[in-house]
Each structure stands twice: as structure tokens, then as C-alpha cells.
Amino acid sequence: MDNTEKRTGIEEIAHQIVDSAITVHRELGPGLLESTYQVCLAYELRKRGLKVETEVSQPVRY
């Protein structure tokens, strides 16, 4: 896979993410809890065939 093909794939995924977020917000409207949007966005992304993980732990060095 060359850089052009990789970029195209990344751009397509980015488009799906943004489009999903817009779809969820249009459907639900403003003013709900963040957790509601999170669950619905994950559902919408999975519906479009994307792999989604939520609340993934990340190591933090302090």
C-alpha cells in the first residue's frame, strides 16, 4: 500500500467519523449528557462497519 492509498483510507475513515457525529447530533439535538452522545456515536460507527472501543485505559506518567 503506497502513501496515496493509505491517505485515501484514512480520509475515508475520517469522513465516516465526522458524518456519524453530525448524524447523531442532528438526530438527538443539543443538550444531552456527553455519555448519551458517546453511546450513540459508537453505535453509528459500528453500524458503518468501523471498529470502536470506548473508555480505553491509557497509561499516564506524572
| Quaternary assembly | single chain
Cα radius of gyration in angstroms: 15 Å
Q: How many strands, which pairing sense, and closed or not: the largest β-sheet?
A: none
DSSP summary: helix tally: 2
Number of strands: 0
H and E string: HH
Category by helix and strand content: mainly alpha
Shape: flat
Task: Tell me the count of domains.
Answer: 1
In whole angstroms, the N-to-C terminal distance is 38 Å
As a percent range, the share of strand residues is under 5%
Q: What's the rounded overall pLDDT mean?
A: 94
Low-confidence segments, given as residue ranges, are none
The helix fraction, in percent, is 55-70%
Q: What brief labels describe this structure?
A:
2 helices; 62 residues; mainly alpha
What does this 3D model show about the protein?
There is one protein chain. The chain has 62 residues and is mainly α. The chain has one domain. The chain has two helices and no strands. It is flat, with a radius of gyration of 15 Å. The model has no long low-confidence stretch (mean pLDDT 94).
Short description:
The protein is mainly alpha-helical and 62 residues long. It has helices spanning 3-28, 34-47.
What does the secondary structure layout of this molecule look like, with pairings?
Layout: H1 3-28, H2 34-47
Helix pairs in contact: 1-2
